[in-house]
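User: These chains co-purify. Model them together.
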Amino acid sequence: MSRRAVLATGAAGAGAAALAVLWKGADLTQILNRVRDLTHDYQGALSNPRVRAAHLLRRAGFGGTAQEVDRLAAMTTTDMAQSLLDYQQTSNATLDGQLPTLDLSSAKGPNPGAVQAWWLQRMVQTARPLEEKMTLFWHGLLTSGLDKAGPGQMYVQNELFRKMALANFDDLLKAVSKDPAMMIYLDTETNRKGKPNENYARELMELFTTGIGHYTEDDVRESARAFTGWTLQGGKQLRYTMQSAFIPRYFDSGQKTFMGKTGNFTGDDIVEILVPLRATAERLSTRLFSFFAYQNPEPEIVHHLADTFQQSHYNVGAVVREIFSMDAFYSAKAYRALVKSPAELTAQTLRATGADARTYLAAANAMAPMGQVLFYPPNVAGWPGGASWINSSTLLNRLNFANAAARRAPMSSPAQTGDQLTATLVDGNITNNTRDGLQAFAAAHPDDHAGLLFMTMATPEFQLN
Amino acid sequence: MFSRRDFMKQGLLPVFAGSAVPSIFANGVAAAAADSPQATPNGRILVLVQLAGGNDGLNTLIPFQDGAYHDARPTLRQDTGVLTLNNQLGLHPNLKGLKASWDAGQLAIVQGVGYPSPNLSHFASMSIWETASVQGGIGDGWLGRYLNYLDKVGESPNHALEGVSAGSLVPPELRSKTPVTALLSLSTFRLQPVNEHGTQVDVENPLMKFYGAFKTAGPAPFGALLDTTLQEALQASHALQATDATYQPKATYPAKSPIASSLKLVAETIVSGLGVRVAHVTLGGFDNHAREKPVHDKLLLDLDQALAAFMQDLAGHGYGDKVLVMTWSEFGRRVKENGSAGTDHGTAAPMFLLGAPVKGGLYGQQPSLADLDNGNLKFTTDFRSVYASVLQGYLNAPASELLGGNYEILPLLKA
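Assistant: Joint model of the two components:
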């Protein structure tokens, strides 16, 4: 079967037509039960508490160690999710003590590779996995990149995403509108009274809030005027300016007509008009559910999450909490229904193999041929994700990275048996062919622990999340 | 006419689309090959150069005599050094290699290319160009459909290197029912050996078994996708390792230029005789809303120097008359520059077709700067007309079938 045919078959999921009928009449509980029952061959895998815990740790973070899986597996589903969601109560002192200090004082800011390695180390070693996972989510949605912004600015933006990871969406968008990296990336930094620049206004609507089809070209032109006034005061060193400022004389205080309303709107006013729109609620809910559970969520799920969003004053944490409590999140349909992004694959691999400071830099570089460079999205729409992570070139590079990482793994830790490796890395849930193959490999190469680790990470099961 | 709203729906509702595809493909290849003698593919190669972000057409093919151009571009206009093509139009001063090709009759320029009801979103407009459909969407790309057609008529079906792109992702134009390979380098396109005590361990066969079992046991669509992709990857890597061609470039490519590296990789793939029919490279960075001039000048310089080296390299290897290069961008820029010494999203722009197969010259009509639509140029040639001309006039493929409509054939190409 061809690649394209493969995608077409999968997209036309088995129970979809039956569900469509049910959506018209039934209540939400019944729908969600049906969603849970949607089948593929992993029906039942998530009935095992360890698999549920491992699934949650992969989705809400970057995979669990055997100890972490055991700890969560002993909890109820609600408590398990709670322990990840309420991360503010979890100290990250160990991580903070080990992270390298980034030099933000030098004129040109830190080295881009150092910032990439710093973030990758956070993903691997954090005690608050959901905080890092949401930071990755925002980086893929509210994009900026090193092709325009400076590495210090990207660091500042990354810390903003971390600080506001589960905040109210209107607050986050107001902050992002004034974030130096964003102001450089989408040119608000040059947007002045009488000289509007449409770049940020357009992408704010097309990509960050409503999506295409909910605004006019006039709305783009008018809202661009509202985002005037904020600028960076860095002279010729704009890429290295870490602070933005409001300059009243740059602001176009005239009347603007935006989405049927007229006023002397500021950028914050535009955000306050856009965020309450149903299209924004549905689009962000779809993005969050697709990031955490599976792609193309059923309309009823989107509807429910959009309600949650609107009833919680646009609180992202409330939506994420709701996702982790849904049966759909633990349904057979959700199990292994996402492709590990290179960031997820790399972080989980390093959690399995161990890493030192040099490893993070090398691993951050190794992500490029897998199709993802941190702080360098391909364009303002972020990484397309899903099936696009897998092509012949990226797959070979994923396997070669697993090989290199396994060979580099510190020998100090005791070698794990094949069963231990598959239990931790692929839920102990593999095809008989794979189990037999791994056993045959272990029998033929009894001393080659790195080889067995590689073979386990090279399984198709490990490529999915 | 489709509305934006319709477009959005199409883009977001891939779920029920295309479910009939697998059976058609599974049973169709051999039968179709037997009864489709209507065209003879000819081994010609098309190289697509995507100028991502929206290239400023007015500062690429410059109407230097038009007062309206000077008025609209107080800081961005090119006042000096324009490489004149006639008494109205000239190339940007940094396009010296393209000017040399023009002088040699090997550059065709189609003016004012666009489509009706232009979409000013990067992604919606890219999708329209990639699928050759004003609805865009996630269907096969227009060149993917050409690769499907090659399979159908029995041209090396399922050959993984027939369609290649330089980079780590497969571009949407090449989406197809046949394998397409994204390449970063030929030498690293292989599974690295797994060694124990200096002895190489076979992992390919065990992995093929793992992925083969997961094809049906794993979740759709990824179980099958992973299996298919591993097979394609190993097939392509074996093909690359089997070739004993040792590529020596016959031109000096500029250093530190991503577009030059990409084109060099494509040249290597072509001259190594791996059966490439369609190749894709991308030069990004054209979304110049602010401080456009230094960025755009550099992009055009990089493009020009990379293309010059590429054409020289191919000619040196005897491929000069077998390769056509075509550039495209999702849109041009607004006629009037903005207050940031940049330009916002616009509409129509020129396309370049380069190489020995073209009949050099200007085609279509330069859009008027006096008759604008909301500040944007009105297109004069539909991009699908250019696609049709290449499919029919160069690749000898059934253009109206592959484009789903009849478009004017421009005499851009030698017979």
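The longest strand of chain B covers residues 45-52.
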